[in-house]
Protein backbone atom coordinates (compact mmCIF):
# COMPACT_ATOMS: atom_id res chain seq x y z
CA UNK A 1 0.00 0.00 0.00
CA UNK A 2 1.42 3.36 -0.99
CA UNK A 3 0.92 5.86 1.78
CA UNK A 4 0.07 9.45 0.91
CA UNK A 5 2.69 10.76 3.31
CA UNK A 6 5.36 9.04 1.18
CA UNK A 7 4.46 10.43 -2.22
CA UNK A 8 3.21 13.88 -1.44
CA UNK A 9 6.35 15.94 -0.79
CA UNK A 10 8.85 15.38 -3.56
CA UNK A 11 9.86 17.19 -6.72
CA UNK A 12 11.32 20.70 -6.84
CA UNK A 13 12.24 23.91 -8.66
CA UNK A 14 11.91 27.45 -9.88
CA UNK A 15 10.40 30.54 -11.45
CA UNK A 16 9.93 34.36 -11.06
CA UNK A 17 8.91 37.95 -12.08
CA UNK A 18 6.00 40.48 -11.90
CA UNK A 19 4.86 43.35 -14.15
CA UNK A 20 5.29 46.89 -12.82
CA UNK A 21 8.35 49.14 -12.63
CA UNK A 22 8.82 51.98 -10.17
CA UNK A 23 12.12 53.33 -11.48
CA UNK A 24 12.51 55.33 -14.74
CA UNK A 25 12.68 53.20 -17.85
CA UNK A 26 15.78 53.14 -20.01
CA UNK A 27 15.18 53.68 -23.76
CA UNK A 28 15.68 49.96 -24.31
CA UNK A 29 13.26 49.00 -21.52
CA UNK A 30 10.67 51.49 -22.83
CA UNK A 31 10.98 49.94 -26.28
CA UNK A 32 10.59 46.47 -24.82
CA UNK A 33 7.48 47.52 -22.88
CA UNK A 34 5.98 49.10 -25.98
CA UNK A 35 6.52 45.89 -27.98
CA UNK A 36 4.94 43.84 -25.21
CA UNK A 37 1.95 46.19 -24.98
CA UNK A 38 1.44 45.90 -28.74
CA UNK A 39 1.59 42.10 -28.49
CA UNK A 40 -0.86 42.03 -25.57
CA UNK A 41 -3.35 44.30 -27.32
CA UNK A 42 -3.86 41.64 -29.96
CA UNK A 43 -4.56 38.85 -27.46
CA UNK A 44 -8.09 37.42 -27.14
CA UNK A 45 -9.98 37.04 -23.84
CA UNK A 46 -8.24 33.69 -23.29
CA UNK A 47 -4.67 33.19 -24.42
CA UNK A 48 -4.51 30.57 -27.16
CA UNK A 49 -1.75 28.97 -29.17
CA UNK A 50 -0.82 30.88 -32.29
CA UNK A 51 -1.19 28.56 -35.32
CA UNK A 52 1.65 30.49 -36.99
CA UNK A 53 4.18 29.31 -34.38
CA UNK A 54 6.46 26.70 -36.00
CA UNK A 55 5.52 23.52 -34.16
CA UNK A 56 6.43 19.82 -34.32
CA UNK A 57 4.81 16.86 -32.62
CA UNK A 58 6.82 15.45 -29.74
CA UNK A 59 8.76 12.23 -30.32
CA UNK A 60 7.36 9.00 -28.93
CA UNK A 61 7.56 8.97 -25.13
CA UNK A 62 9.98 6.49 -23.56
CA UNK A 63 8.67 3.03 -22.81
CA UNK A 64 7.23 2.95 -19.32
CA UNK A 65 5.48 6.30 -19.46
CA UNK A 66 1.74 5.73 -19.72
CA UNK A 67 -1.62 7.31 -19.06
CA UNK A 68 -2.43 10.82 -20.20
CA UNK A 69 0.76 12.58 -21.29
CA UNK A 70 1.23 16.25 -22.12
CA UNK A 71 4.41 18.02 -23.20
CA UNK A 72 5.35 21.53 -24.25
CA UNK A 73 8.99 22.45 -24.92
CA UNK A 74 9.57 25.79 -26.59
CA UNK A 75 12.04 28.58 -27.26
CA UNK A 76 10.51 31.91 -26.16
CA UNK A 77 11.14 35.42 -27.40
CA UNK A 78 12.41 37.39 -24.37
CA UNK A 79 10.58 40.56 -25.43
CA UNK A 80 7.17 39.46 -26.70
CA UNK A 81 7.15 36.38 -24.41
CA UNK A 82 5.72 34.40 -27.30
CA UNK A 83 7.03 31.00 -28.37
CA UNK A 84 9.30 31.13 -31.41
CA UNK A 85 9.14 27.37 -32.02
CA UNK A 86 7.71 24.48 -30.05
CA UNK A 87 7.55 20.70 -29.74
CA UNK A 88 4.29 19.48 -28.23
CA UNK A 89 1.98 16.64 -27.27
CA UNK A 90 -1.54 17.39 -26.05
CA UNK A 91 -0.56 21.01 -25.30
CA UNK A 92 -4.12 22.11 -24.57
CA UNK A 93 -5.18 19.20 -22.36
CA UNK A 94 -5.73 20.07 -18.71
CA UNK A 95 -3.74 18.18 -16.06
CA UNK A 96 -3.30 18.32 -12.27
CA UNK A 97 -0.18 20.32 -11.40
CA UNK A 98 0.69 18.63 -8.09
CA UNK A 99 3.62 20.46 -6.45
CA UNK A 100 4.65 22.21 -9.67
CA UNK A 101 2.09 24.87 -8.76
CA UNK A 102 4.27 25.98 -5.82
CA UNK A 103 6.41 28.18 -8.06
CA UNK A 104 3.38 30.42 -8.57
CA UNK A 105 3.12 30.84 -4.79
CA UNK A 106 6.75 32.01 -4.75
CA UNK A 107 6.05 34.45 -7.56
CA UNK A 108 3.01 35.93 -5.80
CA UNK A 109 5.05 36.11 -2.60
CA UNK A 110 7.84 38.09 -4.28
CA UNK A 111 5.29 40.52 -5.69
CA UNK A 112 3.92 41.16 -2.22
CA UNK A 113 7.40 41.53 -0.73
CA UNK A 114 8.07 44.15 -3.39
CA UNK A 115 4.81 46.00 -2.69
CA UNK A 116 5.43 45.95 1.07
CA UNK A 117 2.48 43.71 1.90
CA UNK A 118 4.81 40.97 3.17
CA UNK A 119 8.03 41.41 5.15
CA UNK A 120 10.83 38.88 4.73
CA UNK A 121 11.41 39.02 8.48
CA UNK A 122 7.92 37.76 9.33
CA UNK A 123 8.01 34.56 11.37
CA UNK A 124 5.43 31.81 11.67
CA UNK A 125 4.67 29.12 14.20
CA UNK A 126 3.19 25.90 12.80
CA UNK A 127 -0.22 25.19 14.30
CA UNK A 128 -2.34 22.08 13.93
CA UNK A 129 -4.50 24.08 11.53
CA UNK A 130 -1.46 24.87 9.37
CA UNK A 131 0.05 21.41 9.22
CA UNK A 132 -0.36 19.58 5.91
CA UNK A 133 0.90 16.14 4.92
CA UNK A 134 4.57 15.24 5.28
CA UNK A 135 7.43 16.94 7.11
CA UNK A 136 6.90 20.50 8.27
CA UNK A 137 9.01 23.51 9.32
CA UNK A 138 10.15 24.49 12.80
CA UNK A 139 8.20 27.10 14.73
CA UNK A 140 9.62 30.56 14.21
CA UNK A 141 10.59 30.01 10.56
CA UNK A 142 10.70 33.23 8.57
CA UNK A 143 9.41 33.92 5.07
CA UNK A 144 12.70 33.07 3.37
CA UNK A 145 13.08 29.77 5.22
CA UNK A 146 9.53 28.75 4.32
CA UNK A 147 10.07 29.73 0.68
CA UNK A 148 13.28 27.70 0.51
CA UNK A 149 11.55 24.67 2.01
CA UNK A 150 8.63 25.09 -0.40
CA UNK A 151 10.90 24.89 -3.45
CA UNK A 152 13.82 22.72 -2.32
CA UNK A 153 11.93 20.28 -0.08
CA UNK A 154 8.50 20.67 -1.69
CA UNK A 155 7.27 21.22 1.88
CA UNK A 156 3.48 21.24 1.85
CA UNK A 157 3.03 23.01 5.19
CA UNK A 158 5.47 25.77 4.22
CA UNK A 159 3.58 26.16 0.94
CA UNK A 160 0.20 26.39 2.64
CA UNK A 161 1.39 28.98 5.17
CA UNK A 162 2.75 31.17 2.37
CA UNK A 163 -0.24 30.60 0.08
CA UNK A 164 -2.61 31.72 2.84
CA UNK A 165 -0.34 34.63 3.76
CA UNK A 166 -0.52 36.15 0.27
CA UNK A 167 -4.17 35.14 -0.16
CA UNK A 168 -5.82 32.40 -2.19
CA UNK A 169 -6.80 34.91 -4.85
CA UNK A 170 -3.26 36.35 -5.19
CA UNK A 171 -1.80 33.11 -6.53
CA UNK A 172 -4.73 32.67 -8.91
CA UNK A 173 -4.24 36.24 -10.09
CA UNK A 174 -0.78 35.31 -11.40
CA UNK A 175 -2.57 33.22 -14.05
CA UNK A 176 -5.65 35.37 -14.53
CA UNK A 177 -3.64 38.45 -15.50
CA UNK A 178 -2.12 36.41 -18.32
CA UNK A 179 -5.57 35.25 -19.53
CA UNK A 180 -4.77 31.62 -18.77
CA UNK A 181 -8.36 30.45 -18.65
CA UNK A 182 -7.58 26.77 -18.03
CA UNK A 183 -5.18 27.37 -15.15
CA UNK A 184 -6.52 27.03 -11.60
CA UNK A 185 -4.22 27.88 -8.67
CA UNK A 186 -6.61 28.57 -5.79
CA UNK A 187 -6.07 25.77 -3.29
CA UNK A 188 -3.31 25.09 -0.74
CA UNK A 189 -2.23 21.44 -0.61
CA UNK A 190 -4.11 20.44 2.53
CA UNK A 191 -7.22 22.05 1.10
CA UNK A 192 -7.39 19.98 -2.09
CA UNK A 193 -6.63 16.81 -0.12
CA UNK A 194 -9.47 17.69 2.25
CA UNK A 195 -11.80 17.77 -0.75
CA UNK A 196 -10.49 14.49 -2.17
CA UNK A 197 -10.88 12.74 1.17
CA UNK A 198 -14.54 13.76 1.28
CA UNK A 199 -14.02 16.01 4.28
CA UNK A 200 -15.09 19.19 2.52
CA UNK A 201 -18.51 19.52 4.12
CA UNK A 202 -21.68 20.36 2.17
CA UNK A 203 -19.75 21.74 -0.81
CA UNK A 204 -17.73 18.52 -1.28
CA UNK A 205 -19.81 15.65 0.16
CA UNK A 206 -18.18 12.23 0.04
CA UNK A 207 -21.29 10.63 -1.46
CA UNK A 208 -21.33 13.05 -4.42
CA UNK A 209 -17.69 14.06 -4.68
CA UNK A 210 -17.34 13.61 -8.44
CA UNK A 211 -20.16 16.02 -9.24
CA UNK A 212 -19.11 18.43 -6.50
CA UNK A 213 -15.60 18.56 -7.95
CA UNK A 214 -16.99 19.19 -11.43
CA UNK A 215 -19.16 22.02 -10.10
CA UNK A 216 -16.14 23.60 -8.45
CA UNK A 217 -13.92 23.29 -11.54
CA UNK A 218 -16.51 24.80 -13.89
CA UNK A 219 -17.85 27.56 -11.62
CA UNK A 220 -17.17 31.22 -12.45
CA UNK A 221 -14.05 32.54 -10.72
CA UNK A 222 -15.88 34.40 -7.94
CA UNK A 223 -17.89 31.29 -7.07
CA UNK A 224 -14.72 29.20 -7.20
CA UNK A 225 -13.02 31.57 -4.79
CA UNK A 226 -15.96 31.43 -2.37
CA UNK A 227 -15.94 27.61 -2.53
CA UNK A 228 -12.17 27.59 -2.06
CA UNK A 229 -12.39 29.76 1.05
CA UNK A 230 -15.06 27.58 2.65
CA UNK A 231 -13.09 24.46 1.79
CA UNK A 232 -9.93 26.01 3.23
CA UNK A 233 -11.74 26.63 6.52
CA UNK A 234 -12.60 22.93 6.61
CA UNK A 235 -9.01 22.01 5.85
CA UNK A 236 -7.73 24.08 8.75
CA UNK A 237 -10.06 22.16 11.06
CA UNK A 238 -8.59 18.82 9.91
CA UNK A 239 -5.81 16.84 11.57
CA UNK A 240 -3.08 16.08 9.02
CA UNK A 241 -2.40 12.53 10.26
CA UNK A 242 -6.07 11.54 10.14
CA UNK A 243 -6.39 13.24 6.75
CA UNK A 244 -3.46 11.18 5.43
CA UNK A 245 -5.16 7.95 6.50
CA UNK A 246 -8.46 9.08 4.96
CA UNK A 247 -6.68 9.78 1.68
CA UNK A 248 -5.14 6.30 1.70
CA UNK A 249 -8.60 4.81 2.08
CA UNK A 250 -9.95 7.00 -0.73
CA UNK A 251 -7.16 6.24 -3.21
CA UNK A 252 -7.40 2.50 -2.55
CA UNK A 253 -11.20 2.37 -2.78
CA UNK A 254 -13.63 2.15 -5.68
CA UNK A 255 -14.55 5.78 -4.91
CA UNK A 256 -11.27 6.91 -6.49
CA UNK A 257 -11.79 8.68 -9.80
CA UNK A 258 -9.01 10.53 -11.67
CA UNK A 259 -11.54 13.19 -12.67
CA UNK A 260 -11.67 14.18 -9.00
CA UNK A 261 -7.89 14.74 -9.10
CA UNK A 262 -8.28 17.01 -12.08
CA UNK A 263 -11.22 18.99 -10.73
CA UNK A 264 -10.07 19.52 -7.14
CA UNK A 265 -6.31 19.94 -7.45
CA UNK A 266 -4.70 23.00 -8.99
CA UNK A 267 -4.49 22.41 -12.74
CA UNK A 268 -3.26 23.83 -16.03
CA UNK A 269 -2.38 22.88 -19.59
CA UNK A 270 1.17 22.36 -20.89
CA UNK A 271 0.82 25.43 -23.12
CA UNK A 272 -0.64 27.72 -20.46
CA UNK A 273 1.80 26.72 -17.76
CA UNK A 274 4.69 27.30 -20.17
CA UNK A 275 3.33 30.80 -20.74
CA UNK A 276 3.23 31.35 -16.99
CA UNK A 277 6.84 30.23 -16.62
CA UNK A 278 8.02 32.40 -19.51
CA UNK A 279 6.30 35.42 -18.00
CA UNK A 280 7.79 34.88 -14.57
CA UNK A 281 11.32 34.48 -15.86
CA UNK A 282 11.38 37.01 -18.68
CA UNK A 283 8.94 39.83 -17.87
CA UNK A 284 10.62 42.85 -16.22
CA UNK A 285 8.48 43.17 -13.12
CA UNK A 286 10.40 42.30 -10.00
CA UNK A 287 12.96 44.82 -8.87
CA UNK A 288 16.51 43.62 -8.45
CA UNK A 289 16.39 42.54 -4.76
CA UNK A 290 13.25 40.46 -5.28
CA UNK A 291 14.46 39.04 -8.59
CA UNK A 292 17.76 37.96 -7.05
CA UNK A 293 15.99 36.35 -4.10
CA UNK A 294 13.54 34.63 -6.40
CA UNK A 295 16.36 33.27 -8.57
CA UNK A 296 18.39 32.16 -5.57
CA UNK A 297 15.48 30.24 -4.08
CA UNK A 298 14.41 28.75 -7.38
CA UNK A 299 17.91 27.48 -8.04
CA UNK A 300 17.32 25.16 -5.08
CA UNK A 301 14.77 23.24 -7.12
CA UNK A 302 15.09 20.05 -9.14
CA UNK A 303 15.86 19.13 -12.73
CA UNK A 304 18.97 20.91 -13.96
CA UNK A 305 21.18 17.85 -13.59
CA UNK A 306 18.84 15.81 -15.83
CA UNK A 307 18.86 18.25 -18.76
CA UNK A 308 21.14 17.41 -21.69
CA UNK A 309 21.70 21.03 -22.71
CA UNK A 310 24.08 23.08 -20.64
CA UNK A 311 22.06 25.77 -18.88
CA UNK A 312 23.47 29.17 -17.97
CA UNK A 313 20.37 30.03 -15.95
CA UNK A 314 17.91 27.45 -14.67
CA UNK A 315 14.77 27.15 -12.63
CA UNK A 316 12.13 24.49 -12.29
CA UNK A 317 9.65 22.70 -10.05
CA UNK A 318 8.38 19.17 -10.09
CA UNK A 319 5.51 17.40 -8.43
CA UNK A 320 4.12 13.93 -7.96
CA UNK A 321 1.08 12.28 -6.47
CA UNK A 322 -1.18 9.29 -6.83
CA UNK A 323 -0.74 8.43 -10.56
CA UNK A 324 0.41 12.04 -11.23
CA UNK A 325 3.83 13.38 -12.25
CA UNK A 326 4.79 16.88 -13.42
CA UNK A 327 8.18 18.36 -14.32
CA UNK A 328 8.42 22.02 -15.30
CA UNK A 329 11.17 24.58 -15.74
CA UNK A 330 13.07 27.25 -17.61
CA UNK A 331 16.67 27.48 -18.75
CA UNK A 332 18.85 29.66 -20.94
CA UNK A 333 21.10 27.53 -23.10
CA UNK A 334 24.62 28.22 -24.36
CA UNK A 335 23.18 29.77 -27.55
CA UNK A 336 21.34 32.35 -25.48
CA UNK A 337 17.92 30.83 -26.20
CA UNK A 338 15.23 30.93 -23.52
CA UNK A 339 13.73 27.45 -23.23
CA UNK A 340 10.67 26.43 -21.22
CA UNK A 341 9.60 22.83 -20.66
CA UNK A 342 6.40 21.44 -19.17
CA UNK A 343 5.81 17.71 -18.73
CA UNK A 344 2.47 16.49 -17.35
CA UNK A 345 1.32 12.94 -16.62
CA UNK A 346 -2.07 11.97 -15.22
CA UNK A 347 -3.69 8.55 -14.86
CA UNK A 348 -0.29 6.91 -14.93
CA UNK A 349 -0.33 3.10 -14.64
CA UNK A 350 2.22 3.64 -11.84
CA UNK A 351 0.68 4.55 -8.51
CA UNK A 352 3.97 5.90 -7.15
CA UNK A 353 5.30 7.99 -10.02
CA UNK A 354 8.56 9.46 -8.75
CA UNK A 355 10.65 6.62 -10.26
CA UNK A 356 9.35 7.77 -13.67
CA UNK A 357 11.26 11.07 -13.35
CA UNK A 358 14.24 10.02 -15.49
CA UNK A 359 11.92 8.79 -18.24
CA UNK A 360 10.14 12.14 -18.13
CA UNK A 361 13.42 13.98 -18.62
CA UNK A 362 14.46 11.66 -21.43
CA UNK A 363 11.32 12.77 -23.22
CA UNK A 364 11.93 16.44 -22.40
CA UNK A 365 15.49 16.16 -23.74
CA UNK A 366 14.31 14.39 -26.90
CA UNK A 367 11.83 17.21 -27.49
CA UNK A 368 14.57 19.80 -26.95
CA UNK A 369 16.67 18.04 -29.60
CA UNK A 370 13.71 18.07 -31.97
CA UNK A 371 13.45 21.84 -31.51
CA UNK A 372 16.73 22.04 -33.44
CA UNK A 373 14.93 20.57 -36.48
CA UNK A 374 12.81 23.73 -36.71
CA UNK A 375 14.60 26.61 -38.48
CA UNK A 376 15.43 29.24 -35.85
CA UNK A 377 13.40 32.44 -35.82
CA UNK A 378 15.37 35.52 -34.83
CA UNK A 379 14.36 36.60 -31.36
CA UNK A 380 13.98 40.22 -30.29
CA UNK A 381 17.13 41.76 -28.85
CA UNK A 382 17.23 41.77 -25.07
CA UNK A 383 20.00 41.89 -22.51
CA UNK A 384 21.13 38.32 -21.73
CA UNK A 385 20.19 36.96 -18.35
CA UNK A 386 23.12 36.38 -16.05
CA UNK A 387 23.37 33.49 -13.66
CA UNK A 388 22.15 34.48 -10.18
CA UNK A 389 24.57 34.63 -7.30
CA UNK A 390 25.13 31.36 -5.48
CA UNK A 391 23.01 30.94 -2.37
From TrEMBL:
Record's protein name: Beta-lactamase class A
A GO MF label: beta-lactamase activity
Highest taxon of the lineage: Bacteria
PANTHER family from the UniProt entry: BETA-LACTAMASE, SLR0121 PROTEIN
Domain Beta-lactamase class A catalytic, residue spans: 90-344
GO biological process: beta-lactam antibiotic catabolic process; response to antibiotic
Organism name: Deinobacterium chartae
Disordered as annotated region, ranges: 41-62
Amino acid sequence: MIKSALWLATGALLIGSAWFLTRPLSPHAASVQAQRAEAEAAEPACLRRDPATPTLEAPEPPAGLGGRLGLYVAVFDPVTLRPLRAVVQDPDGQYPLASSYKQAVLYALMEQVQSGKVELSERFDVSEADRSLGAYPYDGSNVVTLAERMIHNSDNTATDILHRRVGLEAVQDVADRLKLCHTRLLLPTKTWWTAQAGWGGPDFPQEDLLHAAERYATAPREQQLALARRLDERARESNADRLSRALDRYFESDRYDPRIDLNTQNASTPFEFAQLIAHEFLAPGLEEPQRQLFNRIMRLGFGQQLLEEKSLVFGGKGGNGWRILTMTGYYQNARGEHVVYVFMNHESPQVYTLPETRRAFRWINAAARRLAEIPPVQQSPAPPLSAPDAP
